[in-house]
Amino acid sequence: MRIGIIGAGGQARIHAAAAAAVEGAELVAVAGRTPANVEAMARDFDARPIDNPDALICDSDIDAVVLACPTAQHHAYALAAFDAGKHVFTEVPIARTVAEADAMIAAASDAGRVLMAGQVPRYVATVARFREIVASGELGDVVALSSTRYSPPYWPAGETLASGHHGDVVKELLAFDIDVFNWMFGPPDGIMGHGHTTGGAFDHVQVVLRYGDVVVAAEASALLPRGASFATTLRAICRDGVVELDVSLPENAPVDWRFEIVGPGGERTAVETDPVDPNAAMIEAFRRAVEDLPISGAATAEAARDTLNVCRRVDQALHAADTAFDL
Length: 327
Known about the structure:
Layout: E1 2-6, H1 10-21, E2 26-31, H2 35-44, E3 48-49, H3 53-58, E4 64-67, H4 74-83, E5 87-90, H5 98-111, E6 115-117, H6 125-136, E7 142-150, H7 169-185, E8 190-198, E9 201-211, E10 214-221, E11 230-238, E12 241-249, E13 256-262, E14 268-270, H8 278-290, H9 301-319
Parallel strand pairs: 1-2, 1-4, 2-3, 4-5, 5-6, 7-10
Antiparallel strand pairs: 7-11, 8-9, 9-10, 11-12, 12-13, 13-14
């Protein structure tokens, strides 16, 4: 599978490295908005720099396009790629709106091509194991979950969320946790929340989602100072114990994580998982889907669209005048 990446920033480099680690996948071309970044990334990964994304999409040497560009561009580039007979892997969120996501899914189907979104937590070994433990019932019925996702600004220095180049924390951060909750329980029955905005864009939110009898409290923030460690947590409170997962990603340092089960007597047991590069696992799943082979994680475009729909409902709840559940 010969891949062309649209985008030459940090996330594009992560996907390029993942492609290099997957047998049967090869990065062959890079395009983006900053020529110097495109040239540097192409050089580092032994790929061809291409002047503009449209030329990359039309390149006959490319089988699949990875969209590591701003969300606002996903819809147009994906439709153009399907028109050109290409498969598409896109960053989360899959699109700006549910209508755009539906159009992308329909275009992929009409073209007989694969559309997949980067729902990376589904390929994180600890998150997948967390879900398995909760679903197994070994700790009894789950009563409540909580999550946090704290990040330094994910937009370039000198830009702001209000510029519209990047989405707010609901779509760019909270969406990953919402996708995990949907993966575990299906869509939520009710939503309420509060948020902080800068320039009209949410940069810190606290949301409560109800999945049947399970209450989920989720918090996402991009108010950490630049250079601070990105950090996430997941906790499931069950009738007979608690599952806890804490992860910190310091800059230029190994991942620091703790994954434990707390039993009914307070005893703590570490949960072991095999180390897996989740980004390589995603590209491998994409390659398998392109080759019509079984894939894991159920990271379908439809699942990404459903997550985006929940993000839409969260946004409505955050903008509501009151805090009643959105039933």
